[in-house]
Amino acid sequence: MTPNNAMISVKQWGWVILAFAVALWGAVADGADSNASPATEWKQIFELIKTRQLEPFAQVDPQLFRAKLAPLLEKPDLKSDPEFLVFYGGTLALSTFAKRDLAPTKRDELFCEAYTNLRNAAEKGDPLAMSGVAQMLAQGLGLQRDVASALAWYQKAWKAIADKPYKRYHVTEFLLATAQLQIEAKDIAAAEATYKELLAYSEHSPKLTDALVALDNLALFYRNIGNYAAARTVFKRYMVICEKVLGSNHLLIAQNLDSLAQLYFLDNNYRAAEPLVLRALEITRKNLGPDHPNNAEIMNALIVLYEAEGEPNRAVELMERVLRIREKQCDQVFSVTSELEQTGFADNLRREYHACLSQVVEHLTTNSIARRITSDMVLFAKGAMLETLAQRQARVFRGTDPELNRLFTEWQTAREQLAKLLMATPSPDQLAGYQDMKLKLEARKEITEQRFARASGRFASQNRASHVLLPDVARALTNNSALVEFAKYRFFHPGTKEEKRWGDSQYAAFVLRGGGDIINPDVALIRLGSADKIEAAVKKWRKAAAPDEQGRRSDKAVLDAASRELATLVWNPIVPLLADCRKVYISPDGELAFVSFGALPGSKPDSFVIDDFDISYVATGRDLVRQGGGQANPPLLVGAPDFGEQQGATAKLATDTKPEDELLVMRSGISDLRSFTALSFAPLPSTRSEVENVARLLQQADTLRRSQTAATAPLVLTGAKADEATVKAAKHPSILHLATHGFFLPDSGLNEAMSGNDRFQSQLSGEMREAAAGKLWRQMKLKNPMHRSGIALAGANDTIRGRREAGGNDGILTAEEVAGMDLWGTKMVVISACESGLGEARGGEGVFGLRRAFTMAGAQSLVMTLWAVSDDATRQLMESLYRHLPEQRTPQRALLAAQREWIAKKRAAGLYPHPVHWAGFLASGIGLGLDDEKTP
Predict the structure, then answer these.
(1) Higher confidence at residue 138 or residue 728?
(2) DSSP label at 842?
(3) DSSP state at residue 34
């Protein structure tokens, strides 16, 4: 009934395999313990496993396990011993299943060997082997998935044991798996008979859990086929057994009450469902306390009930209580887990987040309390993982604890080793082992991060800053400013069957104006509509606003049409809610992160939004409250790197430029990178003068003194000195300016199994084989968006061509590497490069790429680009930004001034200020100094 309480009729197949493991060990252990005759050699080995002398081989290295036992397969007596074949084949299959970092071809080989041995034992009549064969066929692990054959083997196994004394490790797993396969085969009557057979056998079991498992699965089966009356009957029988044996306040009773309430809810009998859910909540509170996450699950069920009954006020009251429980839960989980673990946890909560937001947007927009609560929820959830990771690193850079520093160094080393592998082109002979090594390094990175995360949680002295509520943001806004917080969510239908509850994704926006009540601020909420429609408009607008692959701009008519369409969907509905606010802070979500809102149509003909509003960007509304910190060092300016010898690619020049256009020499190798045919970075002649002029402007204006830092000359790196090692070693420069190529590569989608396909490799030779190796490498490695985004520095072309060893100074500074830098105290990072603001948009967590990386590293503000930018136009815009910085005082306002100056010059010359030149730049940052009135 709760949004994140997805029901399944039986355990997932992975758990079925695990159940088979329990059965296997139990069966073999029984045989070893009961056999009074002298132990055979394989049973001696089993004894070694039981005493943990050989266990690591089975659990950690199935290949070594096979090497230890394979010689025994040559012995005639063991070749025909079903018990040994079950032990060997089953253990090999299970350990291979657990060993997920095996190359696909190696895994297939081990599974086929395991299957052969189990099949031999099965054909000799062993029921456990029959079950193992059936499970492997049902899973299709290393084999062709064959539901019909799997069912046949399960039925053979069942006949082999049906007339024998009850054995729990046989019956439950056999029948549950059989019923699941019968459902997949659409034989519902047979599945029902199987579940009833399981229930009949469970009545003879001495273990209560067997009967409860049988009843639970039968009830869920009836529920899933829509027979709610039968499901209720079975659930009530389940509850009678639980109350008789466990008492009336056991947690199992609460779970059953919730399931029973779901059945009444599906029949629209809300009056019968409500008391069941209330009793479940009471039992859970008594057993687990008032703030346990299980209470949130049950309260979500009540929220859905109250909304269905037309009682929104009762639903809203519970929403706030659920939010507070989730805040505490996230603090506990996020403080001690790795990013991968956090992602899994966040995914489980996302359905709940979307369901709540959906219901308020669709039905409760007139309820001010509901709007405030959901706004708090968005403020809490948006970018929560990123903030935790950033604060975790801050404890290292700001602290002095040697243990925490040691664990962080281990994690950094693992990240660097993985990055080195991903950038190193393997030889054709190395491809077979490349994937194994990649997976091992990924596992090592995850383990070291887990250790660092747990230690960081222990050393943490403060909660993460995400506990920012609407009053805090209202207090940060000035009278003429507003926050627009976009949110992407999936539509939720609470009154329908679970498989039909989730609809298409939508966008909504919260608008909070400054100058109002800061104790109980009122936030406006507006539904914007279909995400598919909006994101299609975003794609069309980006194509019209950005240059094409030849560096040419689009026609004005094409741009105007795309801009009007996008503005109609996402901006025009918001403008009336802004009233007289001039300053607007935009927190995008989803694909809206790649829109320059200032370039959308303004209130007058041929004007832009930038003419009407001061637009700035924040990752989340929390950024308006957050403060900067840390001691800053002199600026570091990097430009005109010596990329090394270039092959295949040349700087792009527009072939049909118009008189008002510059020659569009683009700061990007992205087009070449997408094709994987001429991976190369062209020289950027304007970047040398850009960084030299920026250095001069900084010294002349004494910007450093204005930002309360000692006036020291900037460090300028060009040519061979503009190298990766120097940039990564920089400790929190006040300004980091990178004028070079940037890139974001799309996921190639190539099947990683190709990396170990020996047959494919054997068909190639010579240059073709080497070329195939390079192509496979470039496509295999591009799975993590933090590895697919980065900037090019000195030596990048040499690394790509294999003339320079990949590693810490290979010239390719990926987002993953940036994330480990120390930028705590850096007030501004300028990535004067193409597409530095691109990445992979993940709902609620922002853009995975350089944006995320520099924020995680500690940078307070970031100036980035959304598309390929003209080399010379960028130089002019950057110099203008730095000229305005002393007066405007913040990167956001300085960029606005520079963009408006560009537009004014074009208009004064009678030319159209096409957004291709200026709108690709965005400035995003934290709240310190965003408003003049708030600047110290």
Answers:
(1) 728
(2) E
(3) H
